[in-house]
Design goal:
This protein is of the alpha/beta class. The chain folds into three domains: 53 residues, no CATH class; 162 residues, Bordetella uptake gene, domain 1 (D-Maltodextrin-Binding Protein, domain 2, 3-Layer(aba) Sandwich), CATH 3.40.190; 114 residues, D-Maltodextrin-Binding Protein, domain 2 (3-Layer(aba) Sandwich), CATH 3.40.190. Helix 8 links the parallel strand 6 and strand 7. 41% of the residues are buried.
């Protein structure tokens, strides 16, 4: 167990020890290591040294851990922001892809990293709002182990159907589902995936019964929609775009509260089913106990980066909308979304896994 004296930020940092020994008030506390003195000294050292640490940060490269493979929307977003942070902070900001376990591997790596501002995590809907409701145990706590930096961006998905399905709108699709309970099937990337939850939300809010068919990934699910094996899927505009253009699938609506910038002519599901909204979101998070001054600096620079015209334009092509909210706002979003998805998962009877 890490103690005060072996803390990566205090116990092993000569700057902190120098600040302590240079001040005669601290010397008795430094050399008399009783439990009470250790606690008092920890507070005093942090008070003296935190401002100095923030003033010298960053003095080496910063890594942003992404819990998915290179080339996907999260990776593209992270790299767009990292380049701007490199320019504004004067230190290289590099991407470290740690794919696997729906992002849990990357989240665990970040949670266990030193809280010194040199390791960040591209936090996601899946990792911070859905997985905590699906897994009985996780190697990290999305609330306790992280400090929010900023909500970078959000993106809605698109509901596409096989062209043979006699529905030209979401209202048509739901009416068809009501007339033939249980006969319409929808695909997803797996149990508990955003597409699965979107389908369950349609069932609950519209009072219909459509059948979930899980796949090992969104790509094979989309291919089966094209083939007519399942009738529809809620998926990324990036994945569905070429098939919408070619006519292999028909797009009915997007899933956000506002129209998707990549598909501006499509209505939202909420236009037919008021209150429906399910989006993906991404943000920057740091290990908990990262100095507040560092968090504040990171937030200011990241919010500026995500709202630069070229970055906004780049992510808009993938259907994402730049945000750049405060740490407190991002905290509130994570808590609210975790609660909302938890309710959907429980009502749908999706059982948590070990």
């Amino acid at each position: 167990m890490t103690s005060f004296w072996t803390s990566p930020l205090i116990g092993r940092d000569p700057v902190h020890l120098k600040a302590c020994t240079a001040n005669t008030r601290f010397r008795p506390l430094l050399f008399d290591k009783t439990p009470m003195n250790k606690t008092i000294l920890a507070v005093l050292l942090f008070t003296v040294s935190a401002p100095g640490f923030a003033q010298t940060w960053p003095n080496k490269p910063i890594r942003v851990i992404v819990g998915s493979a290179p080339g996907g929307a999260p990776d593209i977003l992270a790299r767009s922001v990292a380049q701007k942070l490199t320019d504004s902070l004067g230190q290289q900001v590099v991407i470290d892809n740690r794919a696997g376990a729906s992002g849990a591997i990357g989240a665990e790596t970040t949670a266990k990293a030193a809280a010194d501002g040199y390791t960040l995590f591209l936090s996601t809907t899946m990792g911070f709002a859905i997985l905590p409701n699906l897994k009985k145990t996780l190697p990290y706590d999305a609330i306790k182990d992280f400090a929010s930096v900023t909500h970078l961006a959000s993106a809605s998905n698109v509901l596409v159907i096989n062209p043979a399905v006699p529905a030209k709108s979401v209202s048509d699709l739901l009416q068809l589902a009501k007339s033939k309970p249980g006969t319409l099937n929808y695909g997803s990337a797996g149990s508990g995936s955003p597409a699965h939850l979107a389908g369950e939300m349609l069932n609950m809010m519209a009072g219909v019964r459509m059948t979930h068919v899980p796949y090992k990934g969104a790509a094979p699910a989309l291919l089966d929609v094209i083939a007519g094996q399942v009738q529809f899927i809620v998926t990324s505009p990036i994945s569905a775009g070429p098939h919408i253009t070619s006519g292999r699938v028909r797009a009915l609506a997007t899933t956000g509260s506002k129209r998707n910038p990549a598909l501006p002519d499509l209505p939202t599901v909420a236009d037919s089913l008021p209150g429906f909204e399910i989006t993906q979101w991404w943000g920057l998070s740091a290990p908990s106990r990262t100095p507040r001054a560092v968090i504040d600096r990171l937030h200011a620079e990241a919010a500026k980066a995500i709202n630069m015209p070229d970055v906004r334009e780049r992510i808009a092509r993938d259907g994402a909308i730049a945000v750049g909210g405060t740490p407190r706002e991002y905290d509130a979003l994570i808590v609210a979304e975790r609660k909302r998805f938890g309710e959907v998962i429980r009502k749908a009877g999706i059982r948590p896994e070990d």
